[in-house]
Amino acid sequence: MYLFVYGSLLSFNSRGYMLKGSKLIGEAVLEDFGLYEVDWYPGIVPRRGSKVRGELYEVSEELLREIDEYEGILYERRKVKVSLEGGKMVEAWTYVYLGEVEEERYIPFDLLPWREKRSF
Predict the structure, then answer these.
(1) pTM of this prediction?
(2) 3-state SS track over the chain
(3) Which of 65, 83, 88, 113 sits a CA distance of 20 to 30 A from 31?
(4) In this structure, are residues 15 and 5 in contact, taking their beta carbons and an 8 Å threshold?
């Protein structure tokens, strides 16, 4: 199964180590979602016409359960379709933020991928 990541789980961010040992498929784009800075970390919510750039991994069910625990109650794991370079569409899991977002904290597609500003 596949997992689309866009924030702290990106390979170059603080929690990227959680995906060590998983196969990186490549960069991917998720449409009709927007990326927001919700604290020191980002979250995505449905947003028609917006796009989010991230990474696609092949992961195990066991790892998904671990990430479910890491993401906690602020996020819900959902099935989405992402596009790979060349236009191929793939069904993947991702984590959607469940809280309210402030429009002024929207991160435009041209500023992606999101990079942490702090190191924890």
Answers:
(1) 0.88
(2) CEEEECCCCCCCCCCHHHHCCCEEEEEEEEEEEEEEECCCCEEEEEEEEEEEEEEEEECCHHHHHHHHHHHHHHEEEEEEEEEECCCCEEEEEEEEECCCCCHHHEECHHHCCCCCCCCC
(3) 65
(4) no
Pick the residue with more confidence: 30 or 18? 30
Which CATH number is correct for 2-15+23-109, 3.10.490.10, 3.20.20.60, 3.40.50.2300, 3.90.226.10? 3.10.490.10
**pLDDT by residue (tens digit) across 74-90?**
999 999 999 998 899 99
Contact in structure between 6 and 95 (CB atoms under 8 Å): no
- Flag whether pLDDT at 70 surpasses 70: yes
